[in-house]
Protein backbone atom coordinates (compact mmCIF):
# COMPACT_ATOMS: atom_id res chain seq x y z
CA UNK A 1 0.00 0.00 0.00
CA UNK A 2 1.70 3.15 -1.13
CA UNK A 3 -0.28 6.27 -0.42
CA UNK A 4 2.60 8.69 -0.39
CA UNK A 5 2.94 10.95 -3.41
CA UNK A 6 5.65 13.49 -4.12
CA UNK A 7 3.63 16.68 -4.12
CA UNK A 8 0.26 18.34 -4.64
CA UNK A 9 0.44 18.21 -8.43
CA UNK A 10 0.81 14.45 -8.39
CA UNK A 11 -1.78 14.10 -5.65
CA UNK A 12 -4.44 15.82 -7.74
CA UNK A 13 -4.04 13.55 -10.75
CA UNK A 14 -7.47 12.59 -12.04
CA UNK A 15 -9.25 15.80 -11.09
CA UNK A 16 -11.17 16.90 -14.18
CA UNK A 17 -13.53 19.70 -15.14
CA UNK A 18 -16.99 19.67 -13.51
CA UNK A 19 -16.03 17.43 -10.61
CA UNK A 20 -17.27 17.87 -7.06
CA UNK A 21 -14.60 18.58 -4.46
CA UNK A 22 -14.72 18.83 -0.70
CA UNK A 23 -12.24 21.31 0.69
CA UNK A 24 -11.45 21.26 4.42
CA UNK A 25 -11.03 24.28 6.66
CA UNK A 26 -12.95 26.83 8.68
CA UNK A 27 -12.23 30.30 7.38
CA UNK A 28 -8.54 30.14 6.52
CA UNK A 29 -7.84 27.77 9.41
CA UNK A 30 -6.88 24.25 8.36
CA UNK A 31 -7.26 24.76 4.61
CA UNK A 32 -5.28 22.59 2.18
CA UNK A 33 -3.05 25.41 0.95
CA UNK A 34 -0.86 23.24 -1.26
CA UNK A 35 -3.74 21.47 -2.98
CA UNK A 36 -5.56 24.74 -3.65
CA UNK A 37 -2.42 26.18 -5.24
CA UNK A 38 -2.09 23.04 -7.36
CA UNK A 39 -5.72 23.34 -8.51
CA UNK A 40 -4.96 26.86 -9.73
CA UNK A 41 -1.95 25.52 -11.67
CA UNK A 42 -3.99 22.64 -13.04
CA UNK A 43 -6.67 25.01 -14.33
CA UNK A 44 -9.62 22.59 -14.05
CA UNK A 45 -12.92 24.43 -14.39
CA UNK A 46 -16.60 24.05 -13.57
CA UNK A 47 -15.85 22.77 -10.09
CA UNK A 48 -18.48 22.31 -7.41
CA UNK A 49 -16.81 22.99 -4.07
CA UNK A 50 -18.24 21.85 -0.77
CA UNK A 51 -16.47 23.93 1.85
CA UNK A 52 -17.68 25.76 4.93
CA UNK A 53 -16.34 29.07 3.61
CA UNK A 54 -15.03 30.48 0.36
CA UNK A 55 -11.74 31.95 1.49
CA UNK A 56 -10.82 35.61 1.11
CA UNK A 57 -10.14 37.50 -2.11
CA UNK A 58 -6.49 36.53 -2.41
CA UNK A 59 -6.23 33.33 -0.38
CA UNK A 60 -7.91 29.99 0.15
CA UNK A 61 -10.73 29.20 -2.26
CA UNK A 62 -10.70 32.88 -3.22
CA UNK A 63 -7.77 31.97 -5.47
CA UNK A 64 -10.01 29.58 -7.46
CA UNK A 65 -12.74 32.21 -7.66
CA UNK A 66 -10.28 34.71 -9.13
CA UNK A 67 -9.51 32.25 -11.90
CA UNK A 68 -13.23 31.42 -12.30
CA UNK A 69 -12.64 27.71 -11.79
CA UNK A 70 -15.60 27.30 -9.44
CA UNK A 71 -19.10 26.87 -10.87
CA UNK A 72 -20.90 26.23 -7.61
CA UNK A 73 -20.14 26.72 -3.91
CA UNK A 74 -21.89 24.78 -1.17
CA UNK A 75 -21.09 26.55 2.09
CA UNK A 76 -22.54 27.82 5.35
CA UNK A 77 -20.92 31.25 5.42
CA UNK A 78 -19.24 33.21 2.65
CA UNK A 79 -18.96 36.66 4.14
CA UNK A 80 -15.38 37.78 3.61
CA UNK A 81 -14.88 37.73 -0.11
CA UNK A 82 -15.63 40.61 -2.52
CA UNK A 83 -14.95 38.62 -5.70
CA UNK A 84 -17.32 35.95 -4.43
CA UNK A 85 -19.99 38.59 -3.94
CA UNK A 86 -19.47 39.99 -7.43
CA UNK A 87 -19.72 36.57 -9.09
CA UNK A 88 -22.73 35.59 -7.00
CA UNK A 89 -24.67 38.78 -7.73
CA UNK A 90 -23.83 38.62 -11.44
CA UNK A 91 -25.04 35.02 -11.57
CA UNK A 92 -21.67 33.61 -12.68
CA UNK A 93 -21.41 31.60 -9.49
CA UNK A 94 -24.08 29.32 -8.15
CA UNK A 95 -24.29 29.28 -4.36
CA UNK A 96 -26.07 26.90 -2.03
CA UNK A 97 -26.04 27.99 1.60
CA UNK A 98 -26.73 25.33 4.21
CA UNK A 99 -26.51 25.31 7.99
CA UNK A 100 -23.05 24.59 9.31
CA UNK A 101 -24.05 21.58 11.38
CA UNK A 102 -25.98 20.17 8.44
CA UNK A 103 -22.94 20.62 6.22
CA UNK A 104 -20.74 18.76 8.70
CA UNK A 105 -23.24 15.95 9.18
CA UNK A 106 -23.86 15.58 5.44
CA UNK A 107 -20.13 15.00 4.96
CA UNK A 108 -19.94 12.58 7.87
CA UNK A 109 -23.08 10.73 6.75
CA UNK A 110 -21.86 10.41 3.17
CA UNK A 111 -18.63 8.91 4.39
CA UNK A 112 -20.37 6.66 6.90
CA UNK A 113 -22.80 5.05 4.47
CA UNK A 114 -25.84 6.94 5.76
CA UNK A 115 -27.78 8.16 2.71
CA UNK A 116 -29.89 10.69 4.62
CA UNK A 117 -30.80 11.84 8.11
CA UNK A 118 -33.22 14.17 9.88
CA UNK A 119 -32.13 17.40 11.53
CA UNK A 120 -34.13 20.16 13.21
CA UNK A 121 -31.89 22.82 11.64
CA UNK A 122 -33.70 24.94 9.08
CA UNK A 123 -37.19 23.61 9.71
CA UNK A 124 -39.71 26.33 8.86
CA UNK A 125 -37.11 28.30 6.89
CA UNK A 126 -36.26 28.49 3.20
CA UNK A 127 -33.55 25.88 3.78
CA UNK A 128 -36.31 23.27 4.19
CA UNK A 129 -38.19 24.24 1.03
CA UNK A 130 -38.75 21.25 -1.22
CA UNK A 131 -37.35 18.83 1.36
CA UNK A 132 -39.13 16.05 3.18
CA UNK A 133 -40.07 16.93 6.75
CA UNK A 134 -41.18 14.61 9.49
CA UNK A 135 -42.30 14.76 13.09
CA UNK A 136 -40.48 12.81 15.77
CA UNK A 137 -41.67 13.07 19.38
CA UNK A 138 -43.62 16.21 18.68
CA UNK A 139 -40.80 18.11 16.98
CA UNK A 140 -40.33 18.74 13.27
CA UNK A 141 -37.22 17.72 11.34
CA UNK A 142 -35.89 18.14 7.81
CA UNK A 143 -34.42 15.29 5.81
CA UNK A 144 -30.93 16.01 4.49
CA UNK A 145 -28.82 13.79 2.24
CA UNK A 146 -25.27 12.64 2.76
CA UNK A 147 -22.64 14.24 0.56
CA UNK A 148 -20.15 12.51 -1.69
CA UNK A 149 -17.26 14.08 -3.54
CA UNK A 150 -15.00 12.96 -6.35
CA UNK A 151 -12.07 14.28 -4.35
CA UNK A 152 -11.75 15.49 -0.76
CA UNK A 153 -8.86 17.86 -0.16
CA UNK A 154 -7.77 17.72 3.44
CA UNK A 155 -5.10 19.37 5.56
CA UNK A 156 -3.70 17.60 8.62
CA UNK A 157 -0.93 18.40 11.06
CA UNK A 158 0.83 15.05 11.16
CA UNK A 159 0.21 11.96 9.15
CA UNK A 160 2.00 8.68 8.64
CA UNK A 161 2.57 6.93 5.35
CA UNK A 162 -0.50 4.74 6.04
CA UNK A 163 -2.65 7.89 6.01
CA UNK A 164 -3.36 7.96 9.73
CA UNK A 165 -3.90 11.59 10.67
CA UNK A 166 -3.62 14.02 13.54
CA UNK A 167 -5.03 17.51 13.32
CA UNK A 168 -3.90 20.48 15.37
CA UNK A 169 -6.29 22.69 17.38
CA UNK A 170 -9.22 24.15 15.45
CA UNK A 171 -7.56 23.35 12.14
CA UNK A 172 -9.40 20.04 12.58
CA UNK A 173 -12.92 21.42 11.86
CA UNK A 174 -14.37 19.78 8.70
CA UNK A 175 -11.20 17.96 7.68
CA UNK A 176 -11.84 14.55 9.31
CA UNK A 177 -15.44 14.48 7.98
CA UNK A 178 -14.47 15.35 4.45
CA UNK A 179 -11.69 12.79 4.61
CA UNK A 180 -14.40 10.17 5.11
CA UNK A 181 -16.55 11.31 2.19
CA UNK A 182 -14.13 11.64 -0.71
CA UNK A 183 -13.95 8.91 -3.35
CA UNK A 184 -10.33 9.92 -3.42
CA UNK A 185 -9.13 11.71 -0.32
CA UNK A 186 -5.95 13.70 -0.74
CA UNK A 187 -4.21 14.79 2.44
CA UNK A 188 -1.40 17.28 2.83
CA UNK A 189 0.44 17.27 6.14
CA UNK A 190 2.91 19.54 7.86
CA UNK A 191 4.84 16.52 9.01
CA UNK A 192 4.88 13.14 7.26
CA UNK A 193 6.14 10.37 9.54
CA UNK A 194 6.75 6.63 9.42
CA UNK A 195 4.23 4.05 10.68
CA UNK A 196 4.60 3.62 14.43
CA UNK A 197 5.58 7.19 15.12
CA UNK A 198 2.00 8.22 15.91
CA UNK A 199 0.30 6.77 18.98
CA UNK A 200 -2.58 4.57 17.71
CA UNK A 201 -4.69 5.75 20.66
CA UNK A 202 -4.58 9.37 19.59
CA UNK A 203 -5.21 9.12 15.83
CA UNK A 204 -8.07 11.38 14.73
CA UNK A 205 -8.59 9.94 11.24
CA UNK A 206 -7.75 6.30 10.51
CA UNK A 207 -5.79 5.86 7.31
CA UNK A 208 -8.50 3.74 5.70
CA UNK A 209 -10.22 6.98 4.71
CA UNK A 210 -7.12 8.33 2.96
CA UNK A 211 -5.96 7.44 -0.56
CA UNK A 212 -3.09 9.87 -1.13
CA UNK A 213 -0.86 11.76 1.28
CA UNK A 214 2.02 14.15 0.78
CA UNK A 215 4.38 16.36 2.72
CA UNK A 216 3.12 19.94 2.30
CA UNK A 217 5.39 22.96 2.15
CA UNK A 218 5.50 26.74 2.54
CA UNK A 219 2.48 27.03 4.80
CA UNK A 220 1.34 30.59 5.09
CA UNK A 221 -1.40 29.93 7.71
CA UNK A 222 -2.93 33.34 7.35
CA UNK A 223 -4.89 34.77 10.29
CA UNK A 224 -8.19 36.48 9.42
CA UNK A 225 -8.89 38.25 12.70
CA UNK A 226 -5.79 38.81 14.79
CA UNK A 227 -7.16 39.50 18.27
CA UNK A 228 -4.92 39.85 21.30
CA UNK A 229 -4.90 41.19 24.85
CA UNK A 230 -2.26 43.28 26.54
CA UNK A 231 -0.08 41.82 29.26
CA UNK A 232 -1.44 43.35 32.47
CA UNK B 1 -31.01 55.50 29.75
CA UNK B 2 -30.89 52.65 27.32
CA UNK B 3 -28.22 50.06 28.06
CA UNK B 4 -24.94 50.16 26.18
CA UNK B 5 -23.43 47.00 24.72
CA UNK B 6 -21.32 46.24 27.78
CA UNK B 7 -24.34 46.62 30.05
CA UNK B 8 -26.39 44.30 27.85
CA UNK B 9 -23.62 41.72 28.08
CA UNK B 10 -23.47 42.19 31.87
CA UNK B 11 -27.20 41.63 32.15
CA UNK B 12 -27.03 38.44 30.09
CA UNK B 13 -24.18 37.19 32.25
CA UNK B 14 -26.63 37.15 35.18
CA UNK B 15 -28.50 34.36 33.39
CA UNK B 16 -25.46 32.07 33.55
CA UNK B 17 -25.43 29.17 35.97
CA UNK B 18 -22.59 27.17 37.45
CA UNK B 19 -21.64 24.14 35.36
CA UNK B 20 -23.23 25.31 32.13
CA UNK B 21 -21.80 24.90 28.67
CA UNK B 22 -22.58 28.07 26.73
CA UNK B 23 -22.33 29.10 23.09
CA UNK B 24 -21.88 32.83 22.56
CA UNK B 25 -22.59 34.26 19.13
CA UNK B 26 -20.61 36.90 17.30
CA UNK B 27 -20.92 40.57 18.38
CA UNK B 28 -22.39 41.66 21.72
CA UNK B 29 -22.92 38.03 22.86
CA UNK B 30 -19.14 37.52 22.75
CA UNK B 31 -18.78 40.26 25.40
CA UNK B 32 -20.74 38.12 27.88
CA UNK B 33 -17.52 36.13 28.41
CA UNK B 34 -16.04 39.19 30.14
CA UNK B 35 -18.73 39.14 32.84
CA UNK B 36 -18.85 35.52 33.95
CA UNK B 37 -19.18 35.86 37.74
CA UNK B 38 -16.06 35.15 39.78
CA UNK B 39 -15.94 31.54 40.94
CA UNK B 40 -18.62 30.37 38.51
CA UNK B 41 -17.57 27.51 36.28
CA UNK B 42 -18.94 28.14 32.78
CA UNK B 43 -17.37 26.48 29.74
CA UNK B 44 -17.59 28.30 26.42
CA UNK B 45 -18.31 26.29 23.29
CA UNK B 46 -17.16 27.59 19.94
CA UNK B 47 -18.88 25.75 17.10
CA UNK B 48 -15.74 25.46 15.00
CA UNK B 49 -14.60 22.94 17.58
CA UNK B 50 -13.66 24.14 21.07
CA UNK B 51 -14.99 23.54 24.56
CA UNK B 52 -13.19 25.53 27.21
CA UNK B 53 -12.33 28.53 25.09
CA UNK B 54 -10.12 31.07 26.85
CA UNK B 55 -9.44 34.78 26.28
CA UNK B 56 -7.58 36.33 23.36
CA UNK B 57 -3.86 35.44 23.35
CA UNK B 58 -1.17 37.86 24.48
CA UNK B 59 0.41 39.82 21.65
CA UNK B 60 2.93 37.64 19.87
CA UNK B 61 1.29 34.39 21.01
CA UNK B 62 -1.40 34.20 18.32
CA UNK B 63 -1.76 30.76 16.76
CA UNK B 64 -3.27 30.50 13.27
CA UNK B 65 -4.54 27.02 14.15
CA UNK B 66 -6.53 28.28 17.13
CA UNK B 67 -9.49 30.50 16.32
CA UNK B 68 -13.08 30.90 17.44
CA UNK B 69 -16.22 30.82 15.30
CA UNK B 70 -15.71 34.51 14.53
CA UNK B 71 -12.27 33.62 13.12
CA UNK B 72 -10.57 35.53 15.95
CA UNK B 73 -7.41 34.17 17.53
CA UNK B 74 -8.18 32.72 20.98
CA UNK B 75 -6.59 30.53 23.65
CA UNK B 76 -7.56 27.32 25.44
CA UNK B 77 -8.28 27.09 29.15
CA UNK B 78 -6.77 24.19 31.10
CA UNK B 79 -9.08 21.24 30.49
CA UNK B 80 -10.18 22.48 27.10
CA UNK B 81 -10.91 20.06 24.28
CA UNK B 82 -10.88 20.23 20.48
CA UNK B 83 -13.22 18.30 18.21
CA UNK B 84 -14.44 18.17 14.64
CA UNK B 85 -17.45 20.06 13.26
CA UNK B 86 -19.82 17.07 13.30
CA UNK B 87 -19.07 16.43 16.96
CA UNK B 88 -19.50 20.12 17.67
CA UNK B 89 -23.00 20.18 16.22
CA UNK B 90 -23.83 16.89 17.90
CA UNK B 91 -23.27 18.78 21.15
CA UNK B 92 -25.54 21.55 19.91
CA UNK B 93 -28.36 19.52 18.35
CA UNK B 94 -28.12 16.93 21.11
CA UNK B 95 -28.93 19.65 23.68
CA UNK B 96 -25.68 19.24 25.58
CA UNK B 97 -25.12 22.99 25.43
CA UNK B 98 -27.27 24.66 28.09
CA UNK B 99 -27.43 28.19 26.73
CA UNK B 100 -27.09 29.90 23.37
CA UNK B 101 -26.77 33.68 23.15
CA UNK B 102 -27.01 35.27 19.74
CA UNK B 103 -27.94 38.46 17.94
CA UNK B 104 -30.94 38.99 15.69
CA UNK B 105 -32.38 41.36 13.14
CA UNK B 106 -35.98 40.53 14.12
CA UNK B 107 -37.79 38.42 16.70
CA UNK B 108 -41.53 37.70 16.58
CA UNK B 109 -43.74 37.42 19.65
CA UNK B 110 -44.14 33.68 18.99
CA UNK B 111 -40.36 33.17 19.28
CA UNK B 112 -39.52 33.15 15.56
CA UNK B 113 -36.11 34.65 14.77
CA UNK B 114 -34.62 36.19 11.63
CA UNK B 115 -30.91 36.93 11.67
CA UNK B 116 -29.24 35.68 8.49
CA UNK B 117 -30.58 37.23 5.34
CA UNK B 118 -31.86 40.55 4.00
CA UNK B 119 -33.43 40.10 0.55
CA UNK B 120 -31.70 42.26 -2.03
CA UNK B 121 -28.49 42.46 -0.04
CA UNK B 122 -25.45 40.23 -0.23
CA UNK B 123 -26.23 37.10 1.72
CA UNK B 124 -23.34 35.90 3.81
CA UNK B 125 -24.90 32.71 5.06
CA UNK B 126 -26.37 31.33 8.25
CA UNK B 127 -23.22 29.66 9.54
CA UNK B 128 -24.24 27.67 12.61
CA UNK B 129 -27.18 29.88 13.58
CA UNK B 130 -29.91 27.59 12.20
CA UNK B 131 -28.51 24.56 13.98
CA UNK B 132 -28.17 26.52 17.22
CA UNK B 133 -31.67 27.99 17.27
CA UNK B 134 -33.37 24.78 16.14
CA UNK B 135 -31.92 22.81 19.00
CA UNK B 136 -31.18 24.82 22.11
CA UNK B 137 -33.74 24.71 24.91
CA UNK B 138 -32.52 28.01 26.19
CA UNK B 139 -31.95 30.79 23.67
CA UNK B 140 -31.35 34.39 24.63
CA UNK B 141 -31.39 36.97 21.88
CA UNK B 142 -29.29 40.04 22.48
CA UNK B 143 -30.15 42.96 20.20
CA UNK B 144 -31.01 46.63 19.97
CA UNK B 145 -34.74 47.20 20.47
CA UNK B 146 -35.08 49.14 17.22
CA UNK B 147 -33.21 49.18 13.92
CA UNK B 148 -31.25 52.09 12.50
CA UNK B 149 -34.47 53.53 11.05
CA UNK B 150 -36.00 53.48 14.55
CA UNK B 151 -38.39 50.62 13.72
CA UNK B 152 -39.16 47.93 16.27
CA UNK B 153 -37.24 44.66 16.01
CA UNK B 154 -39.73 42.97 18.37
CA UNK B 155 -42.53 42.18 15.94
CA UNK B 156 -45.86 40.42 15.54
CA UNK B 157 -44.34 38.54 12.64
CA UNK B 158 -40.84 38.56 11.16
CA UNK B 159 -40.61 40.25 7.78
CA UNK B 160 -37.17 38.82 6.93
CA UNK B 161 -36.43 35.18 5.99
CA UNK B 162 -36.50 33.08 9.16
CA UNK B 163 -33.56 31.44 10.87
CA UNK B 164 -35.77 29.36 13.14
CA UNK B 165 -39.36 29.05 14.31
CA UNK B 166 -40.75 29.42 17.82
CA UNK B 167 -37.36 29.09 19.47
CA UNK B 168 -36.42 32.33 21.27
CA UNK B 169 -37.05 32.18 25.02
CA UNK B 170 -35.70 35.52 26.22
CA UNK B 171 -34.60 38.85 24.79
CA UNK B 172 -32.21 41.34 26.31
CA UNK B 173 -32.49 44.59 24.39
CA UNK B 174 -31.05 47.99 25.19
CA UNK B 175 -34.45 48.89 26.69
CA UNK B 176 -35.31 45.87 28.78
CA UNK B 177 -35.54 42.14 29.40
CA UNK B 178 -38.41 40.13 27.92
CA UNK B 179 -39.58 36.55 28.23
CA UNK B 180 -41.20 35.14 25.12
CA UNK B 181 -44.52 33.70 26.34
CA UNK B 182 -47.63 32.34 24.60
CA UNK B 183 -49.18 35.80 25.19
CA UNK B 184 -46.25 37.69 23.64
CA UNK B 185 -43.19 39.56 24.92
CA UNK B 186 -43.48 39.74 28.70
CA UNK B 187 -41.57 42.69 30.11
CA UNK B 188 -39.47 41.45 33.05
CA UNK B 189 -37.15 44.40 33.68
CA UNK B 190 -36.70 47.90 32.31
CA UNK B 191 -33.37 49.55 31.60
CA UNK B 192 -32.73 52.34 34.15
CA UNK B 193 -34.89 55.36 33.42
CA UNK B 194 -36.70 53.72 30.50
CA UNK B 195 -40.47 53.86 30.94
CA UNK B 196 -43.03 51.19 30.14
CA UNK B 197 -44.59 53.72 27.75
CA UNK B 198 -41.36 54.09 25.79
CA UNK B 199 -40.99 50.31 25.56
CA UNK B 200 -44.61 49.98 24.50
CA UNK B 201 -44.17 52.59 21.79
CA UNK B 202 -41.11 50.79 20.42
CA UNK B 203 -42.52 47.26 20.53
CA UNK B 204 -44.63 46.28 17.54
CA UNK B 205 -45.38 42.75 18.74
CA UNK B 206 -47.73 41.87 21.61
CA UNK B 207 -46.32 43.25 24.86
CA UNK B 208 -47.35 41.86 28.24
CA UNK B 209 -46.88 44.13 31.25
CA UNK B 210 -47.96 42.78 34.62
CA UNK B 211 -47.96 45.09 37.64
CA UNK B 212 -44.93 47.20 38.45
CA UNK B 213 -41.99 46.20 36.27
CA UNK B 214 -38.73 46.63 38.16
CA UNK B 215 -35.83 48.68 36.93
CA UNK B 216 -32.69 46.73 36.19
CA UNK B 217 -29.79 47.11 38.61
CA UNK B 218 -26.77 48.06 36.49
Oligomer: heterodimer
CATH homologous superfamily (4th level) name of chain A: Glutaconate Coenzyme A-transferase
Structural class of chain A: alpha/beta
Shape of chain B: globular
| Main interface: chain pair and counts | A-B, 57 and 53 residues
- On the 0-100 scale, what is the average pLDDT of chain B? 96
Number of strands of chain B: 13
As a percent range, the share of helical residues of chain B equals 10-25%
CA-based gyration radius of chain B: 17 Å
How many beta-strand runs of chain A? 11
Poorly predicted spans of chain A: none
Shape of chain A: globular
Strand content of chain A: 25-35%
Task: Please give the CATH architecture of chain A.
Answer: 3-Layer(aba) Sandwich
Which strand order spans the largest sheet of chain B, edge to edge or round the barrel? 4-3-2-1-5-8-10-11-12-13
- Sketch the topology of chain B as an H/E string, one letter per element: HEHEEEHEEEHEEEEEHE
Computed Rg of chain A: 18 Å
Q: In percent terms, what proportion of residues of chain B is strand?
A: 15-25%
In the residues of chain A, how many domains can be counted? 1
Summarize the biggest pleated sheet of chain B.
10 strands, mixed
Summarize the structure.
The complex is a heterodimer of chains A (about 230) and B (about 220). Chain A has helices at about 10, 35-40, 60-65, 80-90, 100-110, 175-180, and strands at about 20-25, 45-50, 70-75, 95, 115-120, 135, 140-145, 150-160, 165, 180-195, 210-215. With about 230 residues, chain A is α/β, with parallel strands linked by helices.
